[in-house]
Amino acid sequence: MSLLRAFRYNTLTLCRNVISRSSSSLTDGEERIAQVLKEKFPQASALKVVDISGGCGAMYEIHIESDEFRGKRTVQQHQLVNQALKDEIKAMHGLRIFTDVPRK
Q1: What is the mean pLDDT of residues 4-16?
Q2: Which residues, 6+ apart, have CB-to-CB distance to 69 below 8 Å?
Q3: How far, CA to CA in Å, does 102 sit from each of 23, 57, 68, 99?
Q4: Which residues contact 85 (CB under 8 A, 6 or more apart)?
Q5: Is the pLDDT confidence value at 10 over 80?
């Protein structure tokens, strides 16, 4: 097993062993990411950040709807989110991004 594969396996195993949390409360990581995105996208009409790693902070899913994405291709929208989270992404194993433009 390669070193990278062993690292990924151990990270996923660790995340699966984390005790599940209440869905009504945000983890520290979710709150931190949400705060950064609120600052970077003040026009966002909807924002949801979910730790999909079981609470250990290795993988997140982000749903963000903002008028700032209007006229931009999906890849450009995702690049804006990645740029906003560049410091946080360094500590992540994975990130799913879903962007949209508000309907008028």
Answers
A1: 47
A2: 77, 80, 99, 100, 101
A3: 26, 28, 10, 10
A4: 33, 36, 37, 95
A5: no
Instruction: At 96, list the tokens.
Output: 């799913």
Q: How far apart are CA 29 and CA 50, in angstroms?
A: 9
The pLDDT of residue 2: 53
- What amino acid occupies position 49? V
Which two structure tokens, joined as six digits, stand for 2? Answer: 């390669």
Q: Tell me the whole-structure pTM to 2 decimals.
A: 0.74
Instruction: Give the closest residue to 80 by CA, choosing from 99, 94, 95, 61.
Output: 99
- In the predicted structure, residue 22 carries a pLDDT above the cut 70: no
